[in-house]
Request: fold
Amino acid sequence: MGAASRIERARELDEDAVFRDDAGALAEADRELDAVEADLALARGRIAHGRYLRDREEGPEELPLFRRAAELRRSLGDARGEAEAVFWLGTYHQVVRGDHDAAVPLLERSYELAVAAGDGLTASYAARHLGIAAHVAGRLGVARERLEESTRLRREAGFLAGVAANLVGLVHVAVDEGRLGDAAALAGEAAALAEESGARAVLRQVEEARARLSP
Reply:
């Protein structure tokens, strides 16, 4: 149900409470509006994060928005939605704050919720960022396993740009493991998928990764 439908439903429930003396109508209306608020908070938080990636200046609204989205979706019993919101909380701590210790438990929770809810795409995002955290910590085997799992999930979802981005991560892992032949092959596949999906930002990442292959 979209935001407009939920708001209209809340209006109808308010009328039920006022004119039909429906005792549970107002609580149900609150739930409808909480769902709208959760969606809006998450959307605004993602936009704030996008601005951070562009400008590298942290906006004060990003963390409170993601927290609010997670709280509301948890209160609504929306495990799938909570997984998404908790992922973005983890990403905030990892990307904006560089705090992997704070990020990893959130990313693990997001992954667990997403898998339980059958949300392969959110699970792929959480697995990817857990792989990044493992790579930063020097746990190359774990990083490779997480990125490969995320790549599998993204292939299943048809998310080619996301597959290409993960392959770039696997290039860096392969280089650090001394597997330069594998790294070159992964870079070639990443470039082809990025080109096919129009992911220009990933193409730039491929070129940066390829620079590590040159002596």
